[in-house]
């Protein structure tokens, strides 16, 4: 069991829920990695404090996300599913790592510059990637599935692991990023040149959990392009190309094969097929989600169990770190 590679990933609880891009580009892979790896998956609730969400909303969104992740295929019998804030080791190792991170190094993080670099930003946004490095290193993870936007944070994580190991002796596994590009490719249905996003929401975002009718309506009213051929060309036909990507990823059929399949058919038929495929994909997830949210006691139990499993690993790493850097034991 412990000879299997260790996989770790995190996802933030902020926003109305998870969308098609999150599912196809991230959580679906989490689920598929459970057979061959020892997986640790967590909800990055500490990270989401960087946007100072309303406390009641954060609680509700965190509970919802536990159910969404389970419904999307995270299996608590095979993987540890937990909340980051249930293990103080994350923040503790984050502090140690922040003392090894250069000010300039942290300032260069693209996401920080985009989201918090200005005067209005908080220090949490500055520390964000350092806490993320701690998340990963605590579990001695070998592989970290993330989207393209997290690549730089993974590089920082590797640098910090190597720096620590060099200064204090071999302590951390240097993790390999496992970057998926699918999420980048799923675009907003109303603005197919932009990534489908949580913050944008609106009728261009397909939530994994929403009414079937809402999904149907959004797909039917997705922007299309001039002409009437169902062909892939991101530059001249971004709308149709996006729908082709979605259909291709959902059905596992290559885009050229789909083009052949829809030759001579109009946009209407094509959109109906996309809607059907997406609804088919979501159907079991939605029904499972409905069962899960009706049982909050079970959700609490899952993350409690997950935290206990996570603690077995995190406490060992943290004890070693304290010792290596020269902190005295407490007893
Ligand atoms: N920053 C990641 C994101 O927004 C979430 C995250 C936090 C994470 N800690 C992590 C991802 C550790 C992978 C590993 O997507």
What is the third-level CATH name, the topology of the largest domain? Rossmann fold
Strands side by side in the biggest sheet: 1-2-3
CATH superfamily of the largest domain: HUPs
Structural class: mainly alpha
**Approximately how much beta-strand content do the residues carry?**
5-15%
Q: H/E series, N to C?
A: EHEHHEHHHHEHEHHHHHH
Polypeptide structure, described:
By secondary structure, the protein is mainly α. It folds into two domains: 6-184 and 296-325, HUPs (Rossmann fold, 3-Layer(aba) Sandwich), CATH 3.40.50; 210-290, Tyrosyl-Transfer RNA Synthetase, CATH 1.10.240.10. Helix content is 54%, strand content 8%. The protein contains 14 helices and five strands. It has a three-stranded parallel beta sheet with strand order 1-2-3. Strands 4-5 form a two-stranded parallel ribbon. Strand 4, helix 8 (151-168) and strand 5 form a beta-alpha-beta unit. The protein is globular and about 75 Å long. The protein starts with 5 loop residues before the first strand and ends in a 6-residue tail after the last helix. Residues 8-12, 44, 47, 132, 135-136, 144, 146, 150 line the site of tryptophan.
Describe the secondary structure blueprint for this structure.
Elements: E1 6-11, H1 20-32, E2 38-43, H2 45-48, H3 55-71, E3 79-83, H4 89-98, H5 103-107, H6 110-115, H7 123-138, E4 143-147, H8 151-168, E5 176-180, H9 182-185, H10 212-220, H11 238-251, H12 255-261, H13 267-293, H14 296-325
Parallel strand pairs: 1-2, 2-3, 4-5
The structure holds tryptophan.
Tryptophan binds next to strand 1, helix 7 and strand 4.
């Amino acid at each position: 069991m412990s000879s299997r590679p260790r996989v770790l990933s995190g996802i933030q609880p902020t926003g109305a829920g998870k969308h098609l891009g999150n599912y196809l580009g991230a959580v679906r892979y989490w689920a598929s990695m459970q057979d061959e790896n020892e997986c640790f998956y967590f909800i990055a609730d500490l990270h989401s404090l960087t946007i100072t969400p309303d406390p009641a909303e954060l609680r509700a969104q965190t509970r919802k996300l536990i159910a969404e992740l389970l419904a999307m295929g995270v299996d608590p019998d095979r993987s540890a599913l937990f909340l980051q804030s249930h293990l103080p080791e994350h923040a503790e190792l984050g502090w140690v790592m922040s003392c090894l991170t250069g000010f300039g190094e942290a300032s260069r993080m693209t996401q920080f510059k985009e989201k918090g670099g200005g005067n209005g930003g908080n220090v949490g946004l500055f520390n964000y990637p350092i806490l993320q490095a701690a998340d990963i290193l605590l579990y001695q993870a070998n592989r970290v599935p993330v989207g393209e936007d997290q690549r730089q944070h993974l590089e920082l994580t590797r640098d910090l692991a190597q720096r620590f190991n060099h200064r204090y002796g071999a302590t951390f596994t240097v993790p390999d990023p496992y970057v998926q590009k699918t999420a980048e490719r799923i675009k907003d249905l109303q603005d197919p040149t932009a990534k489908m996003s949580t913050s944008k929401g609106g009728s261009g975002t397909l939530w994994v959990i929403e009414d079937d009718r809402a999904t149907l309506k959004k797909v039917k009213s997705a922007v299309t392009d001039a002409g009437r051929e169902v062909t892939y060309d991101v530059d001249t036909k971004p709308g149709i190309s996006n729908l082709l990507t979605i259909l291709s990823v959902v059905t596992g059929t290559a885009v050229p094969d789909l083009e052949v399949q829809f030759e001579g058919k109009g946009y209407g038929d094509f959109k109906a097929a996309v809607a059907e495929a997406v609804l088919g994909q979501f159907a079991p997830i939605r029904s499972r989600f409905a069962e899960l949210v009706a049982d909050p006691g079970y959700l609490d139990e899952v993350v409690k169990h997950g935290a206990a499993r996570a603690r077995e690993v995190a406490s060992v790493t943290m004890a070693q770190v304290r010792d290596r850097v020269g902190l005295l034991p407490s007893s």
